[in-house]
Structures are given as C-alpha cells and as structure tokens.
Amino acid sequence: MPPVISPATPSDLPAIFDLLDQSKLPRAGLDQHLGTTLVAKESKRVVGSAALELYGSAALLRSVAVAAERRGQGLGQTLTAAALDLAHRRGVRTVYLLTETAGDFFPRFGFRPIPRSDVDQAVLDSPEFTTACPVSALVMARSLE
User: Fold this and answer.
1) Position 129 confidence tier, pLDDT thresholds 50, 70, 90
2) How far apart are CA 55 and CA 101, in angstroms?
3) pLDDT the model gives residue 41
4) Which domain does 48 fall in, by range?
5) What is the CATH number of the domain that holds 94?
6) CA 24 to CA 18: how far, in whole Å?
7) What is the mean pLDDT of residues 126-142?
8) CA 25 to chain centre
9) Pairing label, strands 4-7, 94-99
10) Each residue of 64-88: pLDDT tens digit?
11) Are strands 58-66 and 94-99 parallel, antiparallel or unpaired?
C-alpha cells in the first residue's frame, strides 16, 4: 500500500526533523511553516516530507525528503507534485527552491535554474536563503501561471 500524503501536524515535527537530518537538509524555520508542510506516512510513520514557505504570490519549496528505504519509488515526485498543487491552490504564481544535490530532479516539474538576483525579495529574505543554505546552492524557479 502506498504511503498516504496529508498535511503535517505538530506531532509530526520530530519525525520530519529526523528525516531532514538524515537527508542533510536544513530544518531552520520549518516549524514556522507547518501549516503548509506535507508528510507521507506509512503505518503512521513519516517516510517523506515537502514544505512550502508562502510569501504572497511567491513560495519557497523546501524540505523535500524521502526515507532512504523508500527512495527511487516515486514518493519524492508525488510529494513535489502535491506541494505544487498546494501552492497553486494558495494563489502562488512563482515557486522557488534551493538545492545542492537535486538539480537533476526538479526540472521534470518545470523548474529551471535562475540567478539569485531574479528571486522575489521576500523569498530572498527567508532563513533558507539568508542562513540555512550556502550561497553555492543552485537556485531554481517555476511559474504556476
């Protein structure tokens, strides 16, 4: 049975943080965006996550992580698609992300590399851009319009 994707709850946060740590992804500020975080659960165990930080008509896609034993089975794709659908339903026009390791994963969803100077200022001011990710991280964007 495939994992069930649902909105994250406060009780999911420790498991999400564990998953992010195992995936070497930053957790800074994620607790501020729990209302737009999705989890994939298998028998009540969190095996995947994807989160959005909403900034008006812009959003930052972050924390796309899948448990090691579930990788390569399409769960990351399902979570990413669900997060993009959530962004669309929330009226987001552009979704941005930073990655050091998944630059080949996100183009299948329409993300393209862009210069940092093209990122919406509110997103640039986020903890993910200011402190959590190195300047060397690849910046990507996708329009939802």
Assistant:
1) confident
2) 24
3) 96
4) 4-143
5) 3.40.630.30
6) 10
7) 82
8) 10
9) unpaired
10) 999 999 988 999 999 999 999 999 9
11) parallel
Instruction: Decide if 82 contacts 50 (C-beta within 8 A).
Output: yes
Angle (CA) 102-34-95 rounded to 5° is 45
Quick one: tokens of 67?
A: 């448990």
3-state secondary structure 29-50: CHHHHHHHEEEEEECCEEEEEE
Question: If you search the block for the tokens 């090691």, which residue do you land on?
Answer: 68
Q: Which strands sit side by side in the sheet containing 58-66, from one edge to the other? A: 4-7, 37-42, 45-55, 58-66, 94-99, 138-143, 112-113
Count of other CB atoms within 10 angstroms of residue 35: 10
How many domains does the chain contain in total? 1
Structure token digits, residue 81: 């698609």
pTM tops 0.85, yes or no: yes
Q: Tokens representing 88?
A: 């669309």
Instruction: Give pLDDT tens digits for 8-67.
Output: 999 999 999 999 999 999 888 899 999 999 999 998 999 999 999 999 999 999 999 999
- Provide the token pair at 95: 């979704």
According to DSSP, residue 133 is labeled S
CA–CA separation, 137 and 25 (whole Å): 12
